[in-house]
Amino acid sequence: xxxxxxxxxxxxxxxxxxxxxxxxxxxxxxxxxxxxxxxxxxxxxxxxxxxxxxxxxxxxxxxxxxxxxxxxxxxxxxxxxxxxxxxxxxxxxxxxxxxxxxxxxxxxxxxxxxxxxxxxxxxxxxxxxxxxxxxxxxxxxxxxxxxxxxxxxxxxxxxxxxxxxxxxxxxxxxxxxxxxxxxxxxxxxxxxxxxxxxxxxxxxxxxxxxxxxxxxxxxxxxxxxxxxxxxxxxxxxxxxxxxxxxxxxxxxxxxxxxxxxxxxxxxxxxxxxxxxxxxxxxxxxxxxxxxxxxxxxxxxxxxxxxxxxxxxxxxxxxxxxxxxxxxxxxxxxxxxxxxxxxxxxxxxxxxxxxxxxxxxxxxxxxxxxxxxxxxxxxxx
Length: 380
Known about the structure:
single chain, 380 residues, mainly alpha, Na+/H+ antiporter like fold, two-stranded antiparallel ribbon, 2 strands, globular
């Protein structure tokens, strides 16, 4: 396991705790005398820019599309680092977690679609159970790191990273409203600029951030989730052109802010669900049950299937000092959706009454996955 992954696991313990504190405070605020204030702040309108170029949205949208960009940047940078300098720099090492992550996205989506077949509105939410929450996965792994082979921790971390990038791609492709077409030119310009910087091996973070801002503005104005710009910037950085100390220093500065501030703020405002236990309608039940089954059972099956497929095709190999006996526990833990799942809920449901029930399904299913994954890791 690289020092980079080791540090990520250590950060995960604190970040996982901070995330759970944010969730707990959000639940208290939404289900107490503070509920009206919580709702008021939640939808507080904020406007940035001039009249012609202004972006106006409630506070929750600024958190989800702006503040969360930092967390997405960290995911992209983590993955980029491992693919170029870390445990995944060899193609064979990268293919196994990539295949596992792909299986862990396809199977939950199929299960969800099966539960909601025939409901065109519900079908649009198919991506909610495809994501694994890398922060909570790292947090749980930090608690049992002495009982799990370092190479298996690296495998789990890599699979979660690929899963995160895959979820970002799904959000970009399937959850944009495309309210206006002209901002797509900004998106194209931002992407082209990042590609040029990558190809020319530009060794300065400033132009990447500038192109990232152009990309973010274009995404938001086009009706696409702007936070994905962070992951794209992190992933396109030409790390081989940067001194190792420079990139490590950047990550050390970004990581505490992203994991200990951004993610707890996100969970506080997105995880505050009113516990009335009365679904809005039959559709809510169908969506919630589909999500629960997909996360708790579909995710592990997909991870196992993707791993076995890569091994059978001989395009990947298990890390040293590990065996297939280790994979089921990691697969169970992958059912922790949470941050990315809640983000997709916001993109797919907006403020519809069904959203509260769906959020509750995500939170409760993720909690069950944490328990099952932790027990499996300890008993293996």
